[in-house]
Design a protein that fits this description.
The structure is a homodimer. Chain A is mostly helical and about 700 residues long. The first copy, chain A, has helices at about 5-25, 35, 40-45, 55-60, 65-105, 115-150, 175-185, 200-230, 255-280, 295-300, 330-360, 365-370, 375-380, 380-400, 405-415, 420-450, 455-460, 465-470, 475-495, 495-510, 515-520, 530-545, 550-575, 585-610, 620-640, 645-650, 660-665, 680-685; strands spanning about 160-165, 190-200, 240, 250-255, 280-290, 310-315. Chains A, B: GO terms for molecular function: calcium-activated cation channel activity.
């Protein structure tokens, strides 16, 4: 790729970005779009334009971490710590490396003559020390954020509960409920509150969903009927629909009557199913509630049974993020599933290597012309050529990577992980390995191998030499890849063009009731599962290529700077977190930042080694130092992210919590439909003095 | 080594063994020797000859596991589980492998023609499965032993305490004691009993030891004086001694007066030092006591501080096995020390490779004659030659290995491990690596390399071939090594000749008081630190060589069979355990048994591969299966050995324990001299209602 096509690519990207930002400024001011651009504020009951006079950039820059936490939770705040840490790393790297490395990269083979480089080495050294220290500071900060969130007097039901799995078979003459209660009452005579058995809710969920669907349809039919009264004849037109396949075939019926019949038919069925679920479909898992946070935090960390695969406990996830269907999976089945999933992921990574390698090899123009000579006429057209050269490979890559996250999340859930946030972290880890291995190594090595295949066939020993020499050729690929991602990606993110269009279409043609309209604009969450590994890929690429193409550093800075700005805006105004893990994703991020740093340091070593730079051996301690830093971080901080420290849990809120409210918040919606005084709950309730307020 | 020298060696060993056993039977019946042969019974207040009519073999065979536990504790019982498991493995291996492998080993190169071998493979397969299953059974059994020991209503003070280290600096305006008490009272308002700060006892220990020494000397002088009254003149001779170097020079003084003066001088000094130690020499560590076992067990497993390197807790070791001087070492210093020790151990292993290699190379007669031709005349003497061939190499090896354990124990304590039993386990692990690497690999490879050095110099590629072919030559070396170890080693063990001689000399010439006599016969413990790795080395050698020299299996069976018998006798009658870790050494043993099995399976594979045995690939799943078994064992059982399961701790004894007795049992002797109502203790005592009985 020559310089002109590179400039074209970056220029076009920038132009698209400017257009999208202008679109955002214009569109976000229209009141009708407020629900698309300020849903988080609206859902929290705030005025969308509360800081009306400031521009969105000013707003984002002036917002504090506390603002982010109150609007979007600790996880989002931790994500910004990540963005700013990486930004800091790149800015420092840029300040130190650019003046030193640009001349080296420019003169290249006269490397040994560059007097500057000894100095550069020393600078890099202190620089890298700073980076590691910054990492420890960031870790400390996030740890404090987490502690504060856990200390907060706000009632978090999950802080009073533990999740118990692998309960052994019920002994003769006892019910499951008695078994669990006896076991925990013996161990915790003073702090045990009550237990909630996990049930197999598949059937009841199905009926609940069906019933809920009919209720929504009924509301919709009634809205249509009411509207027809207002607009047309005063007696209105009763809506009808066909009962056959997709509402296109079969007998035509009066919708309101039909749905009412269905609801009347399903309601008793649901109640019967709820009863039988609570009584007969109890699984070998339970939630156990304690009267104090310390008791729950301590119980979650303690071994309960002499056989480690019985009565296993972990801290309870938030009610909203429990993956109920995974709770019944047994200890060794979970282990087994985990390894099977690892193998599947490994195979996926290897299997995708092939298409990505082919794509990257095909999508350099020279290769295209070499392999498909009949395209020569089109490819020699200057305009076509520039655009193709600029976008083809990057686009293929981006689309390709977008297909994967759902599959990886599915795999992670298959492992038997009991909480949504944990599954997302697991998927994110897999996605990171996938993207780094495939995109970074696959494109670099694959592209190189393809073009040099014949040379290698003649002399296999030349492989190392070819790799060492030809990696720089791919640098511009990644430069444009990064530019495309941040300009177009963040432009689309900020302008929310796609959600805006979908919302307006839905509102105009599909939505009949208020609930439907709300469902049409309700935003998702920030989506760490794909966002974090995406960012990690960028930081890895930027760091590794910074040695051979230092120009990539400003692009990296722009990516994380723009990202911080745009996402700050989105976090404050748009996205609503689906769960809160109190920063548990940080150790995951931190270890990968350090991994990227080590990969970077090894690349520097290798590159300087290839270039026969005499001071290269002095850099060998760097990766070792980074490893020690990673080790210290892990030892000093990690466990506080896995377990709740008792000193944190011990700062009880002054008020006695409503234990009943805690308990009820864990009852699945489908079991808590209209009556919630069924046996299991009623039995337990009657044993407890009702001290708290009942909601 | 030819067959005759092999027979000579084994025969001589057996003869020595028979003589030693006969000596034992004769000597142990003399009443004057009872304290040497039955010290454990005597110390427990039992009649040494309670089962007088039975022979020692009958007694050992008829003893139950419960007998072993009541006489020598759970650790010893676990050691016997280890011996019998290994014995079982070898008996099964012998039954299956001997009929199949003996003909193979005999016919060797016609291996492919042996029809039996397919069958042998299948047998080995099911056999190995059984071995792994036996391992799981053994693990389950030991786990139950541990649980029973922990459930027992007998008061174990360490079950009510945790050890807290890395206490942060004392906040302004608080004492260390207040800091600790406040911290734990906040977290455990109901179950916290009191705390005991760890102090720097170096000075007070020194004075205490000096004072104690003078007291013993005074008692001795008084005994001499009393005796002189009885035998000589009625007024007696007052003993005197010189105060100078070694009691040989200087002024002659009246011993009784002199020691009384010293004691009167030191007693107030000790009291003053005790006071100042308790007040001023407090360290950043403490023992914290709880009123229930569950609270202590749960606290020991929970994270207390948000910064993982502050307020670190572990379960308290038994009072008698706390290594007090290690308690002050800080979190990251412990980590650092650990890695430094690992490096030192690795260097030791590598460094010792050289002398052992040289010894083993020199000590084959052929080599001696080759290298030291002037010895030819002596070496060609038939008698000299046979004896030398039989014993030289093995003796060098055994003496060599005996030097090491103390050094490794010292290194393990340097790591900062807080309990004696843990340090012994750590040392035992190091000793295992050392002995397997050095003895097994060093002697095998070293001996082989030395004799083939010239061949390799000419053609380095021949190394693999030489190794594959020449390992069998070393088999007889190990055969005699094993025979020597069990016949002579267990003979000496049973007959206790060395302790017997030392005891009689001491009693006759040195001991004057009853205490001194008792000190002369008080036995040590079984010494797992060196015994376990020694046994592990034997099982590794026997398993690995069983393929190429199946005759080694009966030797292995004899080693573990005789070992079981002799040590059962010793455990019931002689040794007194120095501490009780409730079987915590088992996981350590189990993982090494499986490691030996895997090494064995890989050896089989390699050997059959070298011999081009067509069915060899079918054996590849074996090591993988073993790994899975190891994984399952570890997952299912290990944590119950590291932590105390709460269901076990929850079975409280009916009686309320005397919490004061629990507390007092942790006070170091040197601080608890005559007055024990000093400030620290008194302060704490006054806060507690004295519910329990005071001892």
């Amino acid at each position: 790729m020559d310089f002109s096509s590179f400039v074209t690519s970056v220029g076009t990207s920038f132009l698209i970005f400017v257009v999208l930002v202008l679109l955002y400024v214009w569109l976000s001011k229209k009141p009708g779009n407020a629900v698309v651009y300020y849903p988080n504020r609206i859902l929290k009951g705030l005025d969308p334009n509360e800081k009306g006079s400031k521009s969105w950039i000013q707003e984002a820059l002036s917002s504090t971490e506390q603002d982010v936490i109150s609007m979007s939770g600790v996880d989002t705040a931790v994500y910004f710590v990540f963005l700013s840490t990486v930004l800091g790393i790149l800015v420092i790297s840029g300040l130190v490396l650019l003046p030193a490395l640009l001349p080296i990269a420019a003169t290249d083979h006269e490397l040994r003559n560059v007097v500057l480089s000894g100095e550069a080495k020393n600078k890099t050294f202190t620089d890298l020390d700073k980076l590691s220290m910054a990492n420890i500071q960031a870790y400390k900060h996030v740890s404090a954020l987490r502690a504060n969130a856990l200390i907060s007097p706000e009632l978090k039901p999950e802080q009073y509960a533990i999740l118990v799995r692998d309960i052994p078979p019920v002994p003769e003459g006892q019910t499951r409920k008695e078994q669990v209660d006896t076991y925990f009452k013996t161990i915790y005579p003073d702090t045990f509150y009550r237990s909630m058995l996990v049930t197999d809710n598949k059937e009841v969920n199905k009926i609940y969903k069906e019933l809920d669907g009919y209720k929504k349809k009924l509301a919709r039919a009634e809205a249509i009927y009411a509207k027809s009264k207002a607009t047309g004849k005063p007696e209105g037109t009763r809506p009808t629909h066909k009962t056959g396949c997709l509402g296109l075939a079969g007998k035509s019926v009066d919708s309101i009557e039909f749905y009412n019949d269905k609801i009347n038919e399903l309601t008793p069925k649901l109640e019967a199913e709820q009863k039988s679920t609570l009584r007969e479909k109890q699984l070998a898992a339970a939630l156990v509630f304690f009267t104090t946070r310390v008791a729950a935090a301590s119980a979650a960390q303690s071994l309960h049974a002499q056989m480690v695969d019985h009565w296993t406990v972990i801290d309870a996830p938030e009610p909203r993020q429990i993956i109920w269907s995974n709770l019944k999976i047994k200890f060794f089945e979970r282990q087994g599933r985990q390894y099977v999933v690892y193998i599947v992921v490994a195979l996926t990574i290897l299997f995708f290597m092939i298409p990505i390698g082919i794509i990257s090899a095909f999508t350099t123009l020279k290769n295209l012309r070499k392999l498909l000579p009949f395209l020569k006429v089109i490819l020699d057209e200057k305009a076509v050529r520039t655009v193709l050269e600029a976008y083809l490979p990057q686009l293929a890559l981006i689309i390709f990577l977008a297909l994967l996250p759902k599959f990886l999340l599915f795999l992670s859930k298959t492992e038997g992980i009991p909480s949504e946030s944990h599954a997302v972290r697991a998927a994110s880890g897999k996605y990171f390995y996938f993207s780094v291995l495939n995109v970074f190594i696959g494109v670099t090595v694959g592209g190189t191998l393809f073009s040099s295949f014949k040379a290698i066939q003649k002399d296999p020993g030349s492989l190392v030499r070819i790799l060492g020499n030809s990696i720089p050729e791919n640098a511009t690929f990644f430069l444009t890849f990064v530019a495309l991602k941040f300009f177009v990606g963040y432009g689309l993110e900020l302008s929310r063009l796609v959600p805006l269009i979908i919302f307006h279409i839905k509102r105009k043609y599909l939505c009949k009731t208020e609930d439907e309209v709300k469902a049409a604009w309700t935003p998702g969450d920030l989506g760490y599962g794909t966002r974090v590994p995406g960012d990690m890929l960028i930081i890895t690429i930027v760091l590794c290529y910074s040695v051979i193409a230092p120009l990539i550093i400003p692009f990296g800075v722009a990516y994380f700077g723009l990202g911080w700005l745009v996402l700050r805006n989105q976090a404050l105004k748009v996205y609503v977190p689906a769960y809160e893990s109190n920063g548990r994703l940080w150790p995951h991020i931190n270890v990968r930042i350090i991994a990227a740093l080590i990969l970077y340091q090894v690349t520097v070593l290798g590159y300087l080694g290839v270039k026969k730079f005499v001071y290269a051996p002095f850099l060998i301690p760097l990766p070792i130092l980074s490893l020690i830093f990673a080790f210290i971080c892990n030892k000093k901080f990690y466990r506080a992210f896995h377990d709740t420290a008792l000193e944190v849990a011990a700062r009880e809120s002054k008020e006695t919590p409503s234990m009943e409210q805690v308990f009820r918040s864990f009852i699945p919606q489908s079991l808590n439909y209209e009556k919630n005084d069924d046996d299991q709950f009623e039995d337990a309730l009657s044993q407890v003095s009702r001290t708290g307020s009942i909601v």
